Amino acid sequence: MVAYITIGVFLLVMGLFLWVFPDSSILDYGYSGLDSLFSTAPYLFMFLIPAVTMRSLAEERKEGTFELLATRPLTDWQIIAGKYLACLLIVLFALAPTLIYYYTVYTLGNPVGNIDTGAVIGSYIGLFLLGSSFTAIGIFASSITNNQIIAFTVAVFLSFFAFSGFDSLSGLLSLQNYALQDFGINEHYQSISRGVLDTRDLIYFLSFIAVFLTITKTILGGRKW
Questions:
Q1: Other CB atoms within 10 Å distance of the CB of residue 81
Q2: CA–CA dist 61, 219 (Å, integer)
Q3: I want to staple 60 with a disulfide (CB 3.0 to 4.6 A). Which of 8, 66, 108, 210 is the partner?
Q4: Would you give the distance in Å from CA 217 to the centre of its chain?
Q5: What residue ranges of the chain have pLDDT lower than 50?
Q6: Is the peptide bond between 97 and the residue preceding it cis, with omega within 30 degrees of 0?
């Protein structure tokens, strides 16, 4: 039920932001675009993805079923990959219905089709990579505790810091080093959202995901030490 509720809340809130709330409504923009979707979705993902991932490993430990899972002919990497891909699939299911928004804006444009499709595709790729990164953070947070609330809180904090923290740090008077922005997710997300797939951005996201999954593997392997 958590997955269904999460997807439902995501689509409901996105629909309100895109079509109802006047400050972000596409109908009040005067031009056809999905900027509201791609600027609002990351902040919704900060809360919705941790809500999905918080049970992945924490609940297994709390219920005592992780030991049963560990005795199966599975490696730690296979367990982590299964949990990660399952949560990532839910993220995909949440994003898929938003294609209706693209079709709607595409149809309402004057003339029809007056929308930057390349930028939209790039933004969707960036949003998927962003969701993949937040999912890796959520799996990590769920591996360090058997309490779902703690796992949720840690995942939200780490996701927010990874997305916006480095931008805030670079803006401090005592840290006027704008190279710090390159360590944050937002800088690379905005780069891909322009419709340009830079290998540096792809390497960043893949490395980010690999680091958190590797740390998760290390934590799970600690039971054997």
A1: 15
A2: 13
A3: 66
A4: 20
A5: none
A6: no
> Which pLDDT does position 158 carry in this prediction?
93
Report residue 170 as tokens.
């670079």
Amino acid in position 174: S
Angle at alpha carbon of residue 165, lines to 159 and 170, rounded to 5°: 155
Measure the CA–CA gap between 202 and 94, rounded to whole angstroms: 22
Asked if residue 123 lies in contact with residue 34, where contact means CB atoms within 8 angstroms, the answer is yes
- What pLDDT is recorded for position 225? 61
DSSP the chain: -HHHHHHHHHHHHHHHHHHT-TTT-GGGTSS---HHHHHHHHHHHHHHHHHHHTTTTHHHHHHT-HHHHHTSS--HHHHHHHHHHHHHHHHHHHHGGGHHHHHHHHHHSSSTT-S-HHHHHHHHHHHHHHHHHHHHHHHHHHHS-S-HHHHHHHHHHHHHIIIIIHHHHHHSGGG--GGGGGGSHHHHHHHHHTT---HHHHHHHHHHHHHHHHHHHHHHHGGG-
